[in-house]
Design brief:
Distance between the termini: 97 Å
Number of strands: 10
Largest sheet: 4 strands, antiparallel
Strand content: 25-35%
Structural class: alpha+beta
Radius of gyration: 35 Å
Helix content: 40-55%
Shape: elongated
């Protein structure tokens, strides 16, 4: 047979031996043999057989090459005068196959799995997925390294640190010559002060010495959502350690002075 017309993925394709075509996604492994039994037409020169709707006993065998994403299709929705616009993109998964045989009368394919295609696919997967493969064992080991009982064991210690925080703060105030109270930082109230104490942060000096890594760690651990940078905790802590008044008090005095002038 010179050619055949097959149907797959709701579309029709005219194919011949050794053609490489792109079709809707198939579930197969690279190098496998796939067959298409929905053959609508077969032809050999002027001798053409048209199915009704399929050609009985006809199949097309091919080698599966692989599946990749097609080009992005832009989807734009707009309702004029309604302030409505939506822009989205879609990348359809497309499979590539190489046609091998066009068979008639119920004949079985003689194709076997293509080892070259398998080897190329394995090499490509190894080059692109090295990082993912190396991270997989580490992720799997996390549950074993962090037993569920650990959080329960930490709670009494956190409560003890919270209870001891006021005493420690008073002692630090006497030693340092300034009020070493983290709640003097603008944006840190009693509730947030308790959360910091539970994490072991009870001194302004600790916050003043935070590195970018510490900032990121506590921002995630205490769910601060960027509050440290927005409210400039580190600079406020440095000012308080240097003996400057709390920023909230300075702001209040400035507001009162402005109101008196007006």
């Amino acid at each position: 047979m010179n050619f055949a017309v097959i149907k797959t993925g709701g579309k029709q394709y005219k194919v011949a031996a050794n053609d490489v075509i792109k079709i809707e996604k198939l579930d197969a492994e690279p190098g496998d043999v796939v067959t298409f039994d929905q053959v609508l037409m077969v032809g050999n020169g002027d001798d053409v057989t048209v199915g009704a709707p399929l050609v009985e006993g006809a199949t097309v065998a091919a080698h599966f090459v692989g599946t990749k994403k097609n080009r992005t299709v832009i989807i734009l929705k707009k309702h004029r005068r309604q302030h409505f616009d939506r822009r989205n993109g879609h990348r359809q998964r497309i499979s590539t196959v190489r046609i091998g045989e066009i068979l008639l009368g119920g004949a079985k394919t003689t194709l076997v799995a293509d080892e070259d295609i398998k080897a190329r696919a394995a090499k490509a997967a190894l080059l692109s997925g090295t990082a993912a493969v190396s991270e997989a064992p580490a992720k799997a080991a996390k549950p074993a390294a962090a037993p569920k009982a650990a959080p329960a064991a930490k709670k009494p210690a956190a409560k003890a640190e919270t209870a001891a925080a006021p005493k420690a703060a008073k002692a630090k105030k006497a030693d340092a010559g300034f009020n070493d109270d983290v709640t003097l930082i603008g944006g840190v109230g009693p509730a947030l002060g308790k959360k910091l104490a539970a994490a072991g942060i009870t001194s302004l000096k600790q916050i003043a010495d935070w590195t970018p890594a510490d900032l990121a760690k506590y921002d995630e651990e205490l769910a601060l959502h960027g509050r440290v940078e927005r409210d400039e905790w580190i600079q406020q802590a440095k000012d308080l350690v240097a003996g400057k008044p709390p920023r909230a008090k300075v702001d209040q005095e400035a507001a009162a002075s402005k109101a008196d002038k007006e």
